[in-house]
Amino acid sequence: MGDSTALLNWTAPADRGSAITKYTVSGEGGYSQDCSANSCTLTGLSNNTKYHFQVTATNALGTSERSPASAEVRPDVKPDTPAAPSLTFGDKQLTVSWAAPASKGSPVKSYDLEISPAPAGQNAQIQNLTSVSYVWKGLTNGVAYKVRVLARNDAKEPSEWSAYSAAETPAGAPVTPAAPSASQAGSVGTQSQLKVSWAAPNNNGDAVSAYTLTTLRGGSPIATQQVSGTSQNITADNSEADYTFTVAATNKAGTSGTSPGSAPVRAAGKPGTVSGGTVAAPGNSGELKVTFTPLTQAQRNGSQASEISYRWSTAYGSGPISAPGGTISGQPNGKNVTVNIIASSTKYNVSGDAKAIGSGVPYGQPGRPSLTGGTSAKGDGQVHWTWTEPNDNGRPINRYEVNYDGTGWKSVGLARSYDHNAGGWSQSHTLKVRACNGTDGNNDCGFDDTATAVSGADPTPPLSQIQAHNSTCPGKPGVTDTYNPSGPSCGAGWVERSEGKLNVNCTKDIYGNGTPWYRMTQGSHPDWYVKSTTVDLFGPRPGGC
């Protein structure tokens, strides 16, 4: 049998004396064909139609009876060569699809597939497939395969193999990536650069075409973007809430699961400056009392309050200070000192700019005055003290205070001397003095000094009596003392022994010229004077003179 043909053979009958001139083959459907010999190729048959042929022989004398019918004859032909199949990838599989080829003979009943390269552990061919698609499983992701197909019908031979399909690679969605890593890559203003990187996962047969990077702040997603590589710089607003990142990989097969979140990372930048403050001098030497307003959340620029520390600085030093203020020391008394406050973040060890919050003049208690007392002159019923001006220790002295005999402190203004009625002659009294340079009445005063003063002696002249040895001319201011027993002239008059004892008023230095003269106040010569250096002329010095 062939394509619309059949080769029919039969045994020639006896011709009975007249040569056979032809044979006639007839079959179903009115088929008839003359043949010249007993082997004849029948043409014009209908493929896949069942025929039973009978033959008659003809000679000059006529045509024989029909032979018995032949066995069943069914002309057929193999199907046309199929077109190359198409492949659709899957995870470790390919879906093979093809179109049924034309068949001039019997209908196509089955197909054979052949794959290249042969899958590990499998035959390269699959036969007797009755549909026009097949899912070829057990393949290796990432390996490019191609497939061809042939068709079978009832003909003895199958069709020719089709051309191979275009190569196709099985693949699945990528494996879920591991958690990415994140770190700060720099900060500008109120934003920071955060660098996120991750390892490429197993692509499961097809290269990753993109990664989906999700940014989360405080655990909530705030942004998603597609990234081609395995790292990305993210610009993030500085925030006290930590950032975390997740990533998912995509290839032609789909998108992987979402990775675990990265370790938290903070977007924090340079702290701002404090908004204001005060500087005051508490009156302790070298100290200034400083207050300032701690940074607000916005001014912290991503750092938490516990991560912010503060320092003070002046032209004379610096040091730590706790918010909202404290006392700084080591500053020069009497100088106007400007105080700056600097905020620093321990998160990324970055400091803000200095902010001048004010200035003050440190000062301390004044030094100790040096107090001097002493004994007043005879006849001076007061006690007197003087003192030196001490170091003001950075602030002008505004008063001195004295304490007389423990009666309590009182101000004497800026005077540096003090007088007080002694209440008698030759009386001893004690005075304390201290310098002050503030207004609080106590803490602004320095150490005191103590001294004793004595009032003057009783000025009433002690009366002494003297008697001349013989005629004597007492001295007088401007007149030379003389002594002459023979009695020469004496301008003031002679003092005679016969006058007896004379009273002398022992008033010293009555002329104020530094010479101790003594004035006679009784006797016959009240205007006479005795000089201390010559009183010996009258015998021993009288008591008190």
Major sheet characteristics:
5 strands, antiparallel
Q: How far do the termini sit from each other?
A: 185 Å
Q: What is the overall shape?
A: rod-shaped
- Based on CA atoms alone, the radius of gyration comes out at 70 Å
Structural class: mainly beta
Mean pLDDT: 89
Helix content: under 10%
β-strand percent reads 35-45%
Number of H- or I-type helical stretches? 1
Q: Could you give the count of β-strands?
A: 41
Low-pLDDT residue intervals, each spanning 5 or more residues: 521-527, 531-545
Give your account of this protein's structure:
- This protein is mostly beta strands.
- The N and C termini lie far apart (185 Å).
- The longest helix has 4 residues, at 297-300.
Labels describing this entry:
1 helix; 1% helix; 545 residues; 41 strands; five-stranded mixed β-sheet; 39% strand; five-stranded antiparallel β-sheet; mainly beta; disordered C terminus
Tell me the layout of helices and strands.
Elements lengths: L5 E4 L10 E8 L3 E5 L3 E4 L11 E6 L2 E2 L22 E5 L2 E5 L12 E7 L8 E5 L3 E5 L8 E7 L28 E8 L2 E7 L12 E8 L2 E8 L3 E7 L5 E9 L2 E2 L21 E4 L7 E5 L4 H4 L7 E7 L2 E5 L3 E4 L8 E9 L4 E2 L3 E6 L10 E2 L1 E2 L6 E6 L11 E6 L4 E3 L5 E5 L6 E9 L12 E6 L8 E4 L5 E2 L8 E2 L18 E4 L11 E4 L8 E3 L14
Parallel strand pairs: 29-35
Antiparallel strand pairs: 1-4, 2-3, 2-5, 5-6, 7-8, 8-11, 9-10, 9-12, 13-14, 14-17, 15-16, 15-18, 18-19, 20-21, 21-24, 22-23, 22-25, 25-26, 25-27, 28-30, 30-33, 31-32, 31-34, 34-35, 36-39, 37-38, 39-40, 40-41
Short description:
With 545 residues, this protein is mainly beta. The protein contains one helix and 41 strands.
